Amino acid sequence: MDVPPTGSYSILPSLQIARECTMPQEKQSSKNPSPAGSTPSPPDASAAAPADNRRWWIRLWVQPLLLLCVGLLLIVCLGLAQRFGLITTGDGSSGSAASGGATSQYICPMMCTPPQSEEGRCPVCAMELVAATSSSGGDSHSVQISPAARRIANIQTADVELLPVTRTISAIGELSYDEGTLKTLSAYVDGRLDRLYADYTGVVVEAGDQLALVYSPRLYSGQVELLLAMKAHQNTPPTQLSRVQLSNQDLFESARQRLIELGMTEQQIENLQASGEPSNRIHLHAPISGTVIKKFAVEGQYVKEGEPIYQLADLSTVWLMLELFPEDAAAIRYGQRVEANVQSLPGETFVGRVAFASPSVDPTTRTVGVRVVIPNSDGRLRIGDYSRATIDIPLNQIGSQQGPVFDPELANKWISPRHPHVISDDPGPCPICGMELVPATDFGYVDAAADNRGALVVPRDAILTTGRDSVIYVETEPGRFEIRRVVVGPNARDKTVILSGLEEGDKVAIRGNFLIDSQMQLAGNPSLIDPTRAVPEEAPEDTEAIAAAMSELSEEDRILAERQEICPVANMRLGSMGAPKRVLVNDTPVFICCEGCRKRLLNEPDKYLTMLEEYQSGSTSENSLPANSEEDSWLPPILPLEAIESEDPVSTDGLPPILSPQLIEPEESTP
Predict the structure, then answer these.
(1) How far apart are CA 409 and CA 415, in angstroms?
(2) Is-contact 93 132, C-beta < 8 A?
(3) Residue range 151-171: average pLDDT?
């Protein structure tokens, strides 16, 4: 064997050895045959390792990819089969419809149109129609809920009760002065304030207390004039003429009256007459007992006649000013009892009565001002303090808030028409305003508690409302819930008064009623979205809206539209969505309810003309255009289109023939 030169390396033998190790056993056997008669050697373990590695990689990547491809192919096949109608969705509607023996109906999710017999899109909102589920044994106004579904949905019921109900109105108000007790002490004469005995705001005074000392030269001259007139009257001898005596008497009376107008009291004038000494100073006395709430002058200040000096308020009564919503203000009456809790005196309740409710609504706050008079003989209530007031209004059998009210404090009593806190057992004048007291019955109060059974009430959760319409689901049989359209009255805490639509003892759903409503929608029955269909069947007349819409048509079109009556596409009465639209189909005038039906009518004219003819002939199936459905059973029969011809056609025999139009050349004018 040749030896490679020094400094060089040969890798050929090693590559050849590696190649021989990876060659199959047969090739190695053919290349190096075994001697005759010798037994072949077993395969080498190192030669089988690469093959095992390749199979491991195949199991790791190729098999999952094949499974994924098969799954995708299966999904595509299922989608194509569902697309071409070979299989249906598993919503259970087809099975239920087949078991009931009725053809499937399709409804609009927004309940724009009545249920349709074929799938497609809603002609009004263009949403895809969905298959209506079976009502599970219920009629057109009810749905049947299985016990299992009821447990899952946690549907609960409560009884309709007839209870004495009291509506409670709560409001926040502020204490204010009683404006009827405010008094202003002004200067009766020009002068100077030498002394102010009530020298600060808030001082409590009694009627007749001295408040100020006023210096006035004019007052002094008036006193001198009175003394002179008194002396002349007293010194007149009885032998003089009666005319002179009467003149002196008039001078004395006028001088006395002038001093009264200058601010002197009767007692001060009598003291002046007894002493006979005039004074240029006079004391101002408090006209009422109360509190000085404002002081307009200071000691030593010169004042003019009529200038205010003090303002006093009698705090034996205070006003509570409330702001109520108009619907709450309409429920209260004069003399209504009000309970107030003051923020500064927690835990104590003060009782007052409504004295006045504003006849107007505040344009800014949209509230009505209500004034409550509260006695405050002990002076514990402070002006400006906040108070929380509650007013209880009893409701009668029909939920009215304006019926007679029994108040034990006003039974067989007389009340002041201006001051509701003045209550007396006997008639007479009001000690505050002088008006005659009137019986409390004049303001809607009764002398004895009437036998008031109360009003029909249900829990608030039982009512489903859209703001304009309210519905309640009544369990007429175990698991059968019927929709009822109700008229809702006022709320009373967690209860709501029902004015009509329910009877005492009815069971209403208070939990899970939204699930019941959704089942009614899917069944194509009346629901919260369209509760008007839940009205009991009557013989309705044309509404003003339909009549107004039909009047927009010409006389000829109106007659044809009234004979056709319904839209063949939407199965709705013509005029219910505005003026009907006229479409000429195969030389036949057809009216539709809206423009949304035009495309469907023109795409399949024969289909809808056939349906219209079947409707007019009365041979429609149960799920197509119903000639005698529950809603349209009151409609008169419709004649077929062939019958819409004049009974006395106009003869054209005597009319001249109509010539074809001819073009007449204008004559040329000669210059």
Answers:
(1) 11
(2) yes
(3) 88
651 three-class SS: coil
User: CA-CA distance, 307 to 314, in Å (whole number)?
Assistant: 21
H helix runs in 489-576, sequence order: 513-522, 544-551, 555-564
Query: Structure tokens of 469?
Result: 């319409």
Quickly count: other Cβ atoms within 10 Å of residue 392's Cβ. Answer: 14
Number of helices (H) and strands (E) in the chain: give both, helices first: 14, 32
Contact indicator for 489, 498 with CB cutoff of 8 Å: yes
Instruction: Single out the residue of 120, 156, 25 nearest to residue 507, CA to CA.
Output: 156
* 14-58 tens-digit pLDDT: 434 444 444 444 444 444 444 444 444 454 555 556 666 667 777
For the 182-313 domain, the top CATH level (class) is mainly beta
* pLDDT single digits (tens) 476-493: 999 999 999 898 888 877
Domains 142-164+453-534 and 182-313 share a fold: no
Answer yes or no: CATH 2.40.420.20 is held by domain 142-164+453-534.
yes
Cross-strand bridge partners of residue 324: 368
The residues spanned by each domain of the chain are 93-134, 142-164+453-534, 182-313, 539-640
How far apart CA 385 and CA 391 sit, in angstroms, is: 19
Q: pTM (2 decimals)?
A: 0.53
DSSP 355-397: EEE-SS--TTT--EEEEEEEE-TT----TT-EEEEEEEEEE-T
Give the rounded percent of residues in the chain with a pLDDT score beyond 70.
Answer: 74
| Model confidence at 288: pLDDT above 60 | yes
Kindly compute the dihedral angle of the four CA atoms of residues 417, 418, 424, 425, in this order, to the nearest 10 degrees. Answer: 0
User: Can you tell me which residue has the tokens 């204008």?
Assistant: 666
> One-letter amino acid identity for 212?
A
In our burial notation (b when 16+ CB lie closer than 10 A, e otherwise), range 222-261 reads: bbebbbebbeebeebeeeeeeeeeeebeebbeebbebbee
Judge whether residue 401 has pLDDT over 80.
no
Q: How far apart are CA 612 and CA 571, in angstroms?
A: 10
Which range (76-80, 106-110, 350-354, 579-583) has the least confidence? 106-110
The helix/strand/coil state of 612 is helix
